[in-house]
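Can't attach files on this board, so I'm pasting raw text. These are the components:
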Amino acid sequence: MIRSFAALRMTNETMKSQSLFQPALVREAVGQAFVKLDPRTMFRNPVMFTVEIGTAVMFFVTIGLLFRPDAAQGSFGYNFTVFGVLFLTLLFANFAEAIAEARGKAQADSLRKTRQDTPANVRLDDGKMVAVSSAQLQKGQVFVVEAGEIIPTDGEIIEGLATIDESAITGESAPVIREAGGDKSSVTGGTKVLSDRIVVQVTTAPGESFLDKMIALVEGAARQKTPNEIALTILLAGFTLVFVIVCVTLQPFAAYAHTPIAVASFIALFVCLIPTTIGGLLSAIGIAGMDRALRANVITKSGKAVETAGDIDVLLLDKTGTITIGNRKATHFWPAPGVAMQAFVEQATVSSLTDETPEGKSIVELARDNKVDPAQLQSRLAGAELIKFTAETRSSGVTLAGGTRLRKGAADAMRRLAEAAGQAYPAEVAERVQTVAKNGGTPLVLSENDRVLGVVELQDIIKPGIQERFERLRAMGIKTVMVTGDNPLTAKFIAEKAGVDDFIAEAKPEDKMQYIRAEQQAGKLVAMMGDGTNDAPALAQADVGVAMNSGTQAAKEAGNMVDLDNDPTKLIEVVEIGKQLLMTRGTLTTFSIANDVAKYFAIVPALFMVAIPALGALNIMGLHSPQSAILSAVIFNALIIPALVPLALRGVAYKPVGASALLRRNLLIYGLGGMVVPFIGIKVIDLLVGLVW
Amino acid sequence: MNTELIGIAVIFLSTVLLALPLGRYLAVVYSGDRSWSDFLGPLERGLYRLGGIDARQEMTWQQHLRALLTINLLWFFWAMLVLCTQGSLPLNPDGNPSMTPDLAFNTAISFLVNCNLQHYSGETGMSYLSQTVVVMFLQFVTAATGMAACVVVFNALRERSAERLGNFYVYFVHSLTRVLLPLSLAVALVLAFQGTPMTYAGKAAVVTVQGDSVQVSRGPAAAMVAIKELGTNGGGFFGANSAHPLENPTYLTNAVENVALVLIPLAMVFALGYYLKRPKLSYMVLGVMTAGFLLLLAPTVYYEMHGNPALAHLGTNQTLGALEGKEMRFGAAASAYWGITNTVISCGSVNSMHDSHMPVSGMCELLGMMTNAFYGGVGVGFLNFFVFVVIAVFISGLMVGRTPELLGKKIEAREMKIALIVALLHPLLILAGTAMSAHLYAGHPTEYAGWLANPGFHGFSEMLYEFTSSAANNGSGFEGLGDNTPWWNLSTGVVMLLARFLPIIGPVAIAGLLARKKYIPESAGTLRLDTATFGVMVFFVIWIIAALAFFPALALGPLAEHFTLY
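---
Top answer:
Structure tokens for the assembled complex are below.
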């Protein structure tokens, strides 16, 4: 089974540039709007379900009038029009949900289309090889992929090492190395092995990968209401009930006052007062939230994760890649007293020639600038033994054929090494180490047979524009925490320069975990991003854990979102998407309820004006006639739903100006606007409807 | 400026000035800090020992409610017993009869729920024993019940996670000994010196200036009138309540009584700020409540002071305002101010007949009870307000892009459900009760002719008012309604019961549930409740939920009457 993420990316880009209402999607949504009229589906949405009941009653009243005209109920035409408008209201609400789903589905379909069946060479327990269709690969099965072949599904390398072209996922053309064990062992279906041969264990059951889950979610099949959505639905159901009470009790009131009210007027009053606007748009808002995350190339495992993202108080960010560009670079050689610069640079270069880390490479590069030719030094490495960096020694280097031990590493580790060997640790070196660290650099101490030769200064380069992003986060009330392996002095310098609020220096995976726990204990919600297997516990502990797609399977399992772009700054976008989702719900609820004021003033006078002329004084809009007033109110009520669909799908813009300012702004736009707009809208519609009734 | 207007301004401002220090004192008392009233400690400890109460035992919210409901149930039986047998019990110098069971049921509940709807007249319907051990007793303890429940909610709103929220009996007893008793004593003294009777002797025979000999009812009135106002009870000693010349003899007593009834509800708001150490929060609450109050007060004062156009047409001078049903010693403005304070606050005492107020005034009084949260009754006023805050927090929390939290606690489906049940209950009880009555009357206008003194729009207002007053636990009557019949006694009795206890249980439950939750510290993204913006939000939530639901009913009652009149 092959999923082309590149195809997903393309659809995203094309869809971003296109309008919200593509003709094909609209056609599908219109069809779905009718399908969704099924009461069993409608029942999930109490507000619209009551509208459906009201519409059904109007249908029978209208039919009844066809056979037995009743002046008290108004003309057949009038009743039929009310019925028609109510029916449209239902369709509009269904359409809103359907178009949101259709947009999600369009992405899902484009993913499905790119799926091809790739034969997988499955290795059975007895070592025999069988060709199996990728669609039938089971979790735990083991398959073999060789150079030039496409990896059939997501899995983890258990044997071998290979260069892999992941451009289908990441868009990055440079091949990457994946190997068994460690953090680089996960492979994704659809990527291509360029060299070597790997044995891979399947990690997801068919139809259970993130993408499959996402497809199910956007298609609505697996969509569950989030806790906040449930609470909001309760609120809306409550409002609906209030108006059930209002409308039911109005009948005896009217009877007492000898002002009979037609069924159409009752139902119109009821439908106008209940919060149909938000009721009709609620599920569309939720689907659109996940959809927006997907458009940002983030796959969410649930709608709740997006919602929680809006609440995040603390963001844990890795320094490398998020705050600083890539890796540290060597910027200076500082030989110890009594060591010649030339000799120091040469030894530093020799110790780094076989070092594949970016730091090592940058030392070699810096040596070139210092007029040392690395190529000439290559010969010294003949028969040398490579010493890899480990977390315990915190140093690396080479042991040359002659027995000379060249080591470079963290200052304190090297000091211990020197002192253990009875060598002096020069005060000048210690001082240099301090100065470098204070200036935000990382000091790398070089020693030859445990004698300290000097310090290599490594510097970080802070990403341009990152300060503004942190400023924005601070305004949102989010605390940013930089996680780094650097020593506290360096970490502090970079933290201050980048403008993060806090940092965890010399961080081990447990430190992240502890920090998250401590913050959660204090009631904060924490988000973090990670890629390594050792990040998995912290990702699981965090309230929002975003795993990079390039990360290990364990990390992806542990998080509740996966970022296809492997972009560490994506967390910031995710938080904003979450906030937008909640705000859209809140503002449309406010708008919907505020609309009631005008609707009352349209309908209540219309109900009583004929029998109690004095109440005509309440007709402050000067509506043409009782019939036109009621029709205008229901027509406005119906039309406002499609009018707000774009807002529901795009989301209300979030501006980090502080909660009170935001509330003031939204109250003005959606609260005050919600009160004023229907007055204007109903009056305008009445001017047209008044021509007929 | 008009002297009458200056009068009500002085009354209002002096209430605020007195409520501020009282609020601070309440916070001290309920926090258990040291205060001058600590000398009452031995008395209180004696009471705890007598009741077998362990005062140090902190309670969960469920235990609080259990304690509250249990003592209330006992009081109900006590009241029923005395009222049904008062005719043959001592302290009955005027020989008033025992109550019929339906009237006793209505009366017992009415006082038990701090409503004080009176379908009887004090002079002829009650013995002095009943006035003292039923009416006055319940006026003290029900006020203390409301205050104690309110303090449980205060306690739950503190910055921490907690299961246990203080001891109910301690809050209850402290409310009595350290707040209600001392204040009542002060008010009663003023009343007694101004001429309100305080005696257990029966009717006095008096020969008037004209030479007629009349029987004048009296009794232990001064003590009862004090707690009637302070405890926002409102049930008068005499049938005419505070319009009665002995219950409210002078403009001064009128001012004192009016200050007394607003005092504790206002002080509770200040107490909130001191107790939680969030003074700005109490300013927000006070601001919203006062805005709502003034919005209802202004039109009432205006219409009462401008007189009745129908009477003006007949050539009657209306320069002193609409004086029908008012006492000359108070005047139109003070009567209007009294009418609104007694309806926004669930006191429900009257110093003029609301039935005779102008239609807009009647509507404002109805709205005061329909919203029932602009100050509101002792303790319970804030509980009602709290429910609206929960709903407002939910909507505005979303509007700032966070899942809603109230003072650091997340509001979820469960809290929302409870808040809505409470918010829904009020319109349900009022509208359903009125609808049933309207249905009965419309179906059998001759059979129930005795109900309505004025059929038509005004009659509708009378029925609406009766249920609104019952559901708001207000107790004032529009009068003009023949309400001592089984239908009215039983229906309003049930409404009063539901409307008292569910709105106490609901907020206490919400607060208890919230208190257990994890406390989330504030950040720049957190919605702050102590801002004017949030105040505006709460204000509109109250109006749109509580007031708008009654728009059709108000249109058919006071509004129709108003537009017909003008």
